[in-house]
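User: quick one, sequence for these C-alpha cells?
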C-alpha cells in the first residue's frame, strides 16, 4: 500500500526541488512523479473542488501558493464541451489528470515573435490525457485543453508561479491575436 501523500507533503517536496535547482528539465522530471502521487492520493479532494464557473467554462481552485506567488498548485475542473483558448503559462507547468479524460493540443509558435500582440501557431501534437497522465511544459510551452466528454473532468496544475502573476498570453487562432490570459480563481 502506498503511504498517504498530503498537500503539505507535496508542497514541502516542491520547495525542496525549487531550492535545489532552477533548471526546468530537472524540475519537470522531479515534480511529475510527485504530482502523480498527489492525484492518486485524493484524500485532500473536497466537494467544493467540483464547483465550476459556467461563464469561464472551467472552475479554478487554489490549493497552494507561496507568499511570493511561486509554487502554485491549482485544481481545475472542466465543463463538458468546454475548454481554454491556446495559451502559455509564463512559467513551467505540470498538469496531472485527476478525473476523466482531457484533450490536449500542443502548439509551436512559428512567427518571429517580434510583435507583442501577434502570434502564429501550428499544431505540434494532439493527445488525450486520462487520470494519472502528465502534461509537462517548460516556460513558453503553448497548449489548449478541452473536455470532449459528457462529464466534468478534473486535473491538478502545478506551476513555478501562479499563472495570474506571470503576464502570460492567450492566442486566437483565427485572428492571430495574442493577449493577456487571466483566469478567475476561487
Ligand atoms: Fe495550461
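Assistant:
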Amino acid at each position: 500500500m502506498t503511504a498517504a501523500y498530503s498537500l503539505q507533503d507535496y508542497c514541502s517536496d516542491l520547495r525542496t526541488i525549487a531550492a535545489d535547482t532552477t533548471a526546468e528539465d530537472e524540475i519537470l522530471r522531479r515534480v511529475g512523479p510527485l504530482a502523480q502521487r498527489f492525484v492518486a492520493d485524493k484524500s485532500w479532494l473536497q466537494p467544493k473542488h467540483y464547483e465550476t464557473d459556467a461563464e469561464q467554462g472551467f472552475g479554478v481552485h487554489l490549493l497552494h501558493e507561496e507568499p511570493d506567488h511561486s509554487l502554485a498548485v491549482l485544481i481545475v475542473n472542466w465543463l463538458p464541451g468546454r475548454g481554454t483558448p491556446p495559451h502559455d503559462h509564463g512559467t513551467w507547468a505540470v498538469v496531472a489528470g485527476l478525473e476523466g479524460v482531457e484533450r490536449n493540443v500542443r502548439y509551436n509558435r512559428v512567427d518571429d515573435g517580434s510583435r507583442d500582440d501577434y502570434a502564429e501557431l501550428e499544431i505540434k501534437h494532439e493527445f488525450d490525457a486520462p487520470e494519472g497522465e502528465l502534461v509537462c511544459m517548460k516556460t513558453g510551452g503553448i497548449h489548449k485543453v478541452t473536455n470532449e466528454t459528457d462529464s466534468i473532468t478534473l486535473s491538478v496544475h502545478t506551476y513555478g508561479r501562479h499563472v495570474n502573476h506571470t503576464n502570460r498570453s492567450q492566442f486566437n487562432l483565427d485572428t492571430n491575436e495574442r493577449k493577456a490570459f487571466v483566469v478567475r480563481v476561487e
